[in-house]
Specification:
The chain has 119 residues and is mainly alpha-helical. The chain contains 6 helices and 2 strands.
């Protein structure tokens, strides 16, 4: 999930992603993934970001708790690094929508089984 508060404060201060990335000693693409929520921001990085932006941590901090990270490891081949690691970030609201849809389908299946049983 995109770190809206962090992005807004950075832009308010007129600081580019490149400048922050340099101060965090990382590539711009690595920092960009953190802002987009595609990579976790460590507690130490949150503190450094707050120092760079000259704001309290709680003004920019947004938790990753509302996301679920699913990791699928198919690395059965142990040579030439041919295995894969796929990490997908799924927002909690999408998972909740899927849960509700599954519940609705289960109810419909149960009702259909009841109708078949009465025939």
């Amino acid at each position: 999930m995109e770190k809206i508060k962090l992005i807004e404060r950075r832009k308010e201060k007129g600081i580019s992603q490149r400048e922050i990335a340099e101060k965090l000693c990382m590539d711009v693409s690595c920092y960009n993934r953190r802002e987009k929520g595609q990579a976790r921001i460590s507690p130490h990085e949150w503190e450094k970001l707050a120092d760079i932006l000259d704001v309290p941590v709680n003004e920019i901090y947004e938790s990753d708790d509302n996301q679920v990270f699913i990791c699928k490891d198919n690395s059965t081949v142990h040579y030439l690094n041919q295995g894969t690691n796929n990490i997908y970030s799924i927002p909690e609201h999408l998972l909740e929508t899927q849960r509700k849809y599954i519940e609705m389908l289960e109810k419909e299946i149960w009702e259909l089984k009841q109708k078949i049983g009465k025939l």
